[in-house]
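User: I'm writing a tutorial on reading structure tokens. Could you give me a worked example: one chain, its sequence, then its tokens, then a sentence or two explaining what the tokens reveal?
Assistant: Sure. Here is the example chain.
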Amino acid sequence: MSDQVLCPRCGDELQTPDVRNALSRVDNATYICDDCGIGEALFDAHGVKLPPVNEWLMPKGSGIESDRWCAFATFDEQSWLVALVEEREPGYFATSIRSEDQAYVERRADWLNERHGIDKHAALLIVGSSMAASE
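And here are its predicted structure tokens:
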């Protein structure tokens, strides 16, 4: 068992023993909380490259906001969905989180952002920067 007690991504407490947590896909050696593990899985499934462990800058309360990506709610031809956007890249990656219920999708996007220390204002700036990158 390691001495690690907090998730290096969000700052939440990890469960004991270590194996009750998620193993990060970044280095396959660092334990992260289950919620952050789900977030990593979503990014991995959509080809979003995560930074190395020593560059993780998203713990809650750190005062450091990610300038790389955020989740947001958008509508495609069929339904509302949570999409992932990178600050310097135009467009977005659609996730499998879909619903006819706009409020549900917005809550899921807000939850993902909150888990990674990204507030609503920062998310809007990231989306705006992504849109500017497409020009």
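What the tokens reveal: Residues 69-133 form one domain. The beta strands are 22-23, 31-32, 69-75, 80-86, 93-99.
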